[in-house]
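TA notes, week 10

Several of you asked for a full example with nothing omitted. So below is the full record: structure tokens for the whole chain, then the designed sequence directly under it. When grading your own attempts, check the secondary structure regions first.
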């Protein structure tokens, strides 16, 4: 979180982004020269997990935003303030967003969260009160979390925030020493939950090398590496930051850590959909595990995706299109300022591309479409460049056309583009997707907790979830939460595609929408990643439902043996 006086500037200065003015030393073209974004459906990057669909202080309470507002966005994770927070962020008159208070809402939305520990302090920058005070606060925060034995979605303790300018070295000593001291205290109280950091305000090689060297020498290397990306148009540098960090890991002999950017986008550009689109593209392309929209303004609005009256903004529609991505993220090749993110769902044969970033008459070329037939249906939509206080009730449909596939490709003209707007291009076989509603939900696209995603040619879509092994307590329980959207309230047959290489029958717990658990039995298969199916019946409500398949979870005694999950299919 930020106090806006640090990097504040007027939006009027940023609107020049769309007028060809210089921002952060880069020249934006005043008019596009016929750019082409290329989408290669056959070139898989990673499973679709909505890497960029997170927020700092994005959830304000158990009902703000409501779970129903969050679920269509398919959020990945959030960073929320410490249990018992007293923090007054961005002009607030009372604290909000306590991680334990909002936790159930986040679970229902299919997401996880980091707990930001220094936001126990009321002010920002933080008012350090001495080591005795800090360690007492840390101990209470951890114990308060451990007492919440039904809270499953805490996947990291964030020990500090932006120490490059908030850590008071003259009073607290060096940050590297302070990190190690706090790490060891948290680890002594909770050796299970990952520890994340150091959460620099910006990436810096020398600072990162010094920190990682000290962390290795003191055995306090973060489980998840966190820094912030908050400068205008700094998406251009993200690949360099990742490469530099990986080189530091390699030089020190440290195994690769997941990268989480738990604050992204600048104060100036926060409400411009095409800018958020650029961040989405680089996070997906260069390997971030998760990323959270920055909290520059009002808490509890998913950082400007909703107005203060709980209405969707222009940026909301970009994130809703992104949230609908299923299957795999596929390769996109930008052209100057024109960039995008694309997915391909081989089950329904849907190519979903979100893109933007430049003016004029441009083109999206989609290749690798052989599986969709000789003709395809192409729908083009847009959402404007309006800000967080302007409600946008629906995106604009620009066109719906039929196009002939030539050598497995189509070229879609997109005329009169607005550099601040975002666009969606959906390509399906003529007549639409193979089913009118999504029936197959890949495990690797879902909320995977204390388990891992693996690749296999035997798996549908090329990936599956394994090592669903733990049932000790709420911190280490292993499960997959499937967020599904069904057209009517009724009983559905749910086929579970699984693998069980134990040689004996294994079991998982099954629950949905917070209800009681039942048991699913998985007969042995030919081996691990050798799949079969079992059928069960689930009674679902119309709209969104969360289905949990668990080795361990609160209110479930634990499964027997082990099983891997490929997908569920509802019929």
């Amino acid at each position: 979180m930020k106090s806006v006086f640090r990097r504040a500037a007027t939006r009027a200065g940023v609107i020049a982004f769309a007028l060809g003015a210089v921002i952060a030393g880069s020249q934006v073209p005043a008019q596009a020269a016929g750019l082409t974004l290329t989408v290669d459906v056959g070139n898989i990057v990673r499973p679709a997990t909505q890497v960029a669909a997170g927020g700092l202080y994005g959830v304000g309470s158990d009902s703000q935003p409501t779970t129903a507002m969050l679920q269509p966005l398919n959020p990945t994770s959030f960073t929320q303030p410490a249990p018992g927070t007293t923090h007054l962020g961005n002009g607030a008159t009372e604290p909000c967003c306590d991680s334990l208070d909002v936790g159930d809402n986040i679970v229902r939305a299919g997401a996880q969260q980091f707990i930001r520990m220094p936001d126990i302090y009321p002010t920002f920058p933080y008012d350090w009160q001495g080591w005795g005070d800090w360690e007492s606060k840390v101990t209470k925060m951890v114990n308060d979390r451990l007492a919440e034995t039904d809270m499953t979605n805490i996947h990291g303790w964030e020990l500090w925030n932006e120490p490059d300018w908030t850590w008071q070295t003259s009073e607290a000593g060096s940050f590297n020493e302070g990190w190690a001291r706090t790490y060891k205290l948290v680890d002594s109280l909770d050796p299970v939950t990952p520890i994340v950091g150091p959460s620099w305000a910006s990436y810096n090689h020398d600072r990162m090398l010094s920190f990682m060297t000290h962390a290795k020498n003191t055995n306090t290397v973060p489980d998840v590496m966190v820094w912030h990306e908050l400068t205008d148009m700094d998406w251009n540098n993200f690949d360099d930051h990742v490469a530099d960090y990986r080189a530091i890991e390699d030089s020190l002999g440290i195994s690769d850590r997941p990268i989480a950017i738990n604050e992204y986008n600048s104060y100036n550009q926060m409400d411009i959909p095409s800018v958020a689109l650029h961040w989405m593209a680089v996070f997906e392309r260069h390997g971030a595990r998760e990323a959270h929209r920055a909290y520059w303004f009002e808490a509890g609005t998913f950082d400007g995706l909703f107005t203060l009256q709980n209405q969707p903004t222009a940026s909301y529609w970009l994130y809703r299109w992104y949230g609908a991505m299923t299957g795999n993220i596929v390769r996109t090749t930008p052209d100057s300022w024109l960039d995008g993110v694309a997915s391909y769902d081989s089950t329904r044969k849907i190519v979903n591309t979100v893109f933007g970033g430049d003016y004029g008459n441009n083109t999206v070329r989609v290749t690798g479409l052989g599986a969709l037939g000789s003709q395809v249906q192409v729908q083009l939509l847009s959402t404007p460049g309006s800000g967080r206080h302007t409600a946008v009730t629906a995106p604009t449909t620009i066109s719906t056309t039929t196009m002939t596939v030539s050598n497995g490709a189509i070229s879609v003209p997109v005329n009169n583009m607005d550099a601040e707007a975002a666009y969606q291009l959906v390509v399906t076989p003529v007549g639409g997707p193979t089913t009118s509603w999504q029936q197959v939900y890949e495990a690797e696209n879902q909320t995977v907790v204390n388990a891992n995603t693996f690749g296999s040619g035997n798996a549908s879509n090329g990936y599956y979830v394994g090592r669903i092994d733990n049932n000790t307590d709420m911190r280490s329980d292993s499960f997959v939460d499937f967020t599904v959207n069904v057209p009517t309230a009724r009983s559905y047959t749910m086929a579970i595609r699984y693998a069980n290489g134990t040689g004996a029958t294994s079991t998982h717990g099954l629950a949905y929408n917070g209800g009681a658990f039942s048991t699913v039995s998985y007969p042995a298969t030919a081996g691990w990643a050798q799949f079969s199916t079992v059928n069960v019946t689930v009674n679902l409500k119309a709209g969104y439902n969360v289905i949990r398949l668990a080795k361990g979870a609160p209110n479930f005694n634990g499964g027997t043996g082990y099983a891997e999950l490929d997908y569920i299919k509802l019929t």
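Residues 131-147 form the longest helix (17 residues). Use that as a sanity check on your answer.
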